[in-house]
Amino acid sequence: MPTASTTDGGDLLERLRAAGVVRLGIAGEIPFGYIDKDGELTGEAPELAKVIFKRLGVDRVQPVPTEFGSLIPGLNSQQFDVVAAGMYVNAERCEQVIFSDPDYQMLDSFIVRKGNPLGLRNYQDVVEKKAKFATGTGYAEIAYAVEAGYKESDILIVPDQVAGLNAVEAGRVDVFAGTALTTREVVKKSGKAEATEPFKPLVGGEPHVDGGAFAFRPTETKLRDAFNVELAKLKKSGELLRILKPFGFTEDEMTDLTAKELCGG
C-alpha cells in the first residue's frame, strides 16, 4: 500500500536497496559535487554519499547534473533521490525539503595583501578602515558587508574568487570576501596575497554560521534519519574529515550543528 508507506516515513530506502543504485542531484560545483575531467562523479557530497549509501545497503551512486536553482524542484518531481550538492540549510529551503544534519560548516574569510596591512579581520574592520571592498556575484557576503554598514553601491562585484584575488593583487581593492574554503584554496599560489583567519559574520547582530547538507523529499523521513545515523558515526570516528580533506576542508569546517538549528527550529 503506497499510501501507508508515505505516512510512516516513506519506503525510498527499501526501493533503493532493491535497485542497488541511488540517483544524486548535483550542480557541477567544485568542490561540492561535480564531474571531473575523466568523466567521474566526485566532490565532497558525492564522495560522502558513496560511503553512507554503501553502509545503508545501496552500492552504486548515479549523478544527475542540473542547475543549482533546479535542485529542489528536481528532487520534489522525483528526477533524482537526494540532493548531494553541499547545499546550505536555510529556513526558506526547509519549507520545501528536509535536510540531513550538516556535514560541514562554513565561515567567512578575506583575501588581503600579504601581512594584512590594514588589519582587516571582519566586516566591521572593513567599514571602520574605509577599505575598498569586493566580493562575488550573488554571494551571501554582500548582505553581511551591508549589515556591517558598508554601502552596497560601493562594493565591487567580481565573478568569483580568482577575479577577487586578482583585484587584491593589482591593488584595485583592499579586500575580497568569500568562504573560508574558497579564499584559502585560491591564495595558495599567490606571492602577494593571503587569506585571513576564518570568522563568523553577524546576521541580525548575532554571529552566523552556514552549514551544508543533503536534501530529501519531505515524505522520506526514514531515509533521512538512517542517513543521519551513519553521518553521526563518521563524525565521531573522524572519518568524515578524511573523506572531505581532499576537497580543501579542514577541522574548521567540521560541525555539530543540526538541521533543526539551521532551519530556525
Describe the structure in brief.
Helices cover 35% and strands 23% of the residues. The chain has 265 residues and is of the alpha/beta class.
Shape: elongated
The helix count comes to 12
Which value, in Å, is the CA radius of gyration? 20 Å
Q: Any low-confidence stretches, pLDDT <50, length ≥5?
A: 1-6
Number of strands: 15
SSE string: HHEEEHEHEHEEEHEHEHEHEEEEHHH
Which class do the helix and strand fractions yield? Answer: alpha/beta
Instruction: Report, as a whole number of angstroms, the end-to-end distance.
Output: 32 Å
State the helical fraction: 25-40%
Beta strand %: 15-25%
**What is the average per-residue confidence, as pLDDT, rounded to a whole number?**
95
Profile the largest sheet: 6 strands, mixed
Protein name: Amino acid ABC transporter substrate-binding protein
Keywords: Signal
Domain Solute-binding protein family 3/N-terminal: 21-251
InterPro entries: Ectoine_EhuB, Solute-binding_3/MltF_N
Descriptive report:
With 265 residues, the protein is of the alpha/beta class. 35% of the residues lie in helices and 23% in strands. Strands 1, 4, 5, 6, 7 and 15 form a 6-stranded mixed sheet that branches. A 5-stranded mixed sheet has the order 10-9-11-8-12. It is elongated.
Give me some keywords for this one.
265 residues; 6-stranded mixed β-sheet; disordered N terminus; Amino acid ABC transporter substrate-binding protein; Solute-binding_3/MltF_N; signal; Ectoine_EhuB
